[in-house]
Amino acid sequence: MTAFKPPCQEQTRHLGVLSQLNLLEAQARNRKVRLQQQSLVKQLEAKAQALTTERDLLKAEIRTVETLQRLMMSMDRQRTHEEEEEMDEDSEDSQLLQLMARHTQLTDLVHAHHLIGGYDVIKTRQGKGVCVSVATAFEGVYLDTYNLEIDLKPRLRITRHNIPPFIPLNNLAEQSNMQTNIRAFLDTLSCHLNAFAGRKQQLKLVKEQHKSIEVMESNVLCSLLVLMLTVPRGKPALLCTLDYTDHTRCFPTRVHFECEDKELPDSPEWKKNCTLLTETPVHKALITMKKMGHIV
Known about the structure:
Blueprint: H1 9-86, H2 92-115, E1 120-124, E2 129-138, E3 141-151, E4 157-161, H3 169-175, H4 182-209, E5 214-218, E6 224-229, E7 238-243, E8 254-259, H5 268-279, H6 282-291
Antiparallel strand pairs: 1-2, 2-3, 3-4, 5-6, 6-7, 7-8
Helix pairs in contact: 1-2, 3-4, 5-6
């Protein structure tokens, strides 16, 4: 029987090196697998976020289309019923009325689309991005339309837009958390744009409708407006400053009067005028002040 021979020192050292190499190789494989898994998780999270955003946009589009379709069907039934009662469909007057009704219907649908907070959304670059249009209006008159092109992958990113530079677009996107709630961001942006459009339109109407009133100062955001008002009965002119510190509103947050006659701004009628200017569009408030005989 052969006696057991213990491994020599060289063999032991050789086995220890092989064991260490095997351990290092296994650790390297595990590290590589972990890195691949982490990379895959990040990719899946980014994809899930993009799909969630796209889903929210599609839901908003579907809600808008469904609302408009219901409104259209209701209006069609009502107008068809009225026209059938009034006259024969083949008459010339009936055809004219149908065209007029259709024009009114389309106008109402467009107005309703914006009243319910709908945004026009068009897919771009094979679904990798969207173009969102934000319309502005004041007192029922549609004004400027602004557009944003937004990348959806790997995260939401505004690539191009024609938003005025004095609108804090990036700050609004961050404050509204655009990555998780794009509708809140669009609503906030729309509020700023419509308020700006409303102030700008009021300034335009003041210049067009009130030739006797001089616009002394205004800024590009239309958040500051200084008017020179002529007071009747030979009284000194009055300087009116409208300060719109809240950029989401069309009305000033502060109204200040200056005049050589120090008692005039503190009189009861001019205190009422101050309140009027904070609650009424400025061009309409000036008409009321003229009718009351406070300005020329």
